[in-house]
Design a protein that fits this description.
By secondary structure, the protein is an alpha/beta fold. 43% of the residues lie in helices and 15% in strands. The protein has helices at residues 8-30, 45-60, 76-88, 107-113, 125-132, 141-152, 172-181, 196-200, 246-249, 263-290, and strands spanning 4-5, 35-41, 64-70, 94-97, 161-165, 185-189, 205-208, 226-229, 233-234, 240-241, 255-256. The longest helix has 28 residues, at 263-290. It is globular and about 60 Å long. The chain binds NADP nicotinamide-adenine-dinucleotide phosphate (NAP). Keywords: Amino-acid biosynthesis, Histidine biosynthesis, Hydrolase, Methionine biosynthesis, Multifunctional enzyme, NADP, One-carbon metabolism, Oxidoreductase, Purine biosynthesis.
Length: 291
């Protein structure tokens, strides 16, 4: 039997309408306008299209989105200065520096300059640390979106074997941590993993975040597994595809995410959620200090 397709697009629409309601409440009851500042450096076409999609999603949810664009020649210290300005500006609830940055700028150093209280991407080492020890924080958007997708299926995660392929700081590593917190058993695979097929075949939930088109075929997947495809790859014909061979794997899996329309829309939704969370926290602090 063919797998049920998990529509990230539909789930994202549902969640965004709830976020919009909460944004409206925050504006009307606390006079706080949730605001996200996005910094885009250089002319990478994919980055430009991601930023455009984020701005559109913010505006549809009633979140103000300020986009600042700079040429590739921007220096690291100029970028740091701009981040500092946003850190100090009380009207800004979230700061996002679109990655990748030009090669002469140290990405990790830049992420560390964003105030952890405004790091709505959830990439700051302090926020990653808070996530590891289960403290309240901004969860990184893609892993957070994946967890929300699985939770929407109403299947139990406890005791499930989750296999994550990929160990990047923004997807692979944190997604495993989020499922560990949900009492799953986690195995990570990466480019040096031997006999990967034997490991992935034992996954109840298989999360693939590699960035290579169609590398996961049906023989990597256990009958009835849930398969989450994070990969976004542009083929020579201009079409987008994931890391999972969708046509083959959907015949084996119980649930599967498509590309496009799967993880991507949920990633942006969780960015809206994190910005709202930051603005709500600020509103609560303001009300406490005025009483
Ligand atoms: P990344 O930093 O390049 O990491 C890729 C990971 O895949 C690395 O850990 C690498 O292993 C592993 N890998 C590479 N070849 C492999 C192989 N043949 N077998 C097993 N593992 C292999 O990428 P990323 O930032 O995590 O992104 C992964 C994909 O997700 C990309 O296509 C990206 O565009 C997409 N993405 C999508 C969203 C979304 O919202 N939809 C968000 C973020 C990323 P090593 O560590 O050993 O090198």
């Amino acid at each position: 039997m063919s797998a049920v397709i998990i529509s990230g697009k539909e789930l994202a629409t549902e969640k965004r309408s709830y976020i919009k309601e909460r944004v409206e409440q925050l504006i009307s009851s606390k006079s706080v306008q949730p605001t996200l500042a996005v910094i885009l450096v250089g002319d990478d076409p994919a980055s430009h299209s991601y930023v455009k999609a984020k701005k559109k999603a913010c505006e549809e949810a009633g979140i103000k989105c300020i986009v600042e664009q700079y040429p590739t020649s921007l220096t690291e210290s100029e970028l740091v200065n701009r981040i500092d300005d946003f850190n100090k500006d009380c009207a800004i609830d979230g700061i996002l520096v679109q990655l990748p940055l030009p090669k002469h700028i140290n990405e990790l150093a830049i992420i560390e300059k964003i105030s952890p209280e405004k790091d709505v991407d959830g990439f700051h080492p302090i926020n990653i640390g808070r996530m590891m020890i289960n403290q309240e924080t901004f969860l990184p958007c893609t892993p957070y979106g994946i967890l929300e997708m699985i939770k929407s299926l109403k299947v139990s995660i406890t005791g499930k074997h989750v296999v994550v392929i990929g160990r990047s700081n923004i997807v692979g590593k944190p997604v495993g941590q989020l499922f560990l917190k949900e009492d799953a058993t986690i195995t990570y695979c990466h480019s040096k993993t031997k006999n990967m097929e034997e490991i992935t075949k034992r996954a109840d939930i298989l999360i693939v975040a590699v960035g290579k088109p169609n590398i996961i075929t049906a023989n990597f997947v256990k009958d009835g597994a849930i398969v989450i495809d994070v990969g976004v790859n542009r083929l020579e014909n201009g079409k987008l595809c994931g890391d999972v061979n969708f046509q083959e794997v959907k015949e084996v899996a119980s649930y599967i995410t498509p590309v496009p329309g799967g993880v991507g829309p949920m990633t942006i939704t969780m960015l809206l959620q994190n910005t709202l969370q930051s603005a709500s926290k600020k509103a609560n602090k303001l009300s406490k200090s005025s009483t």
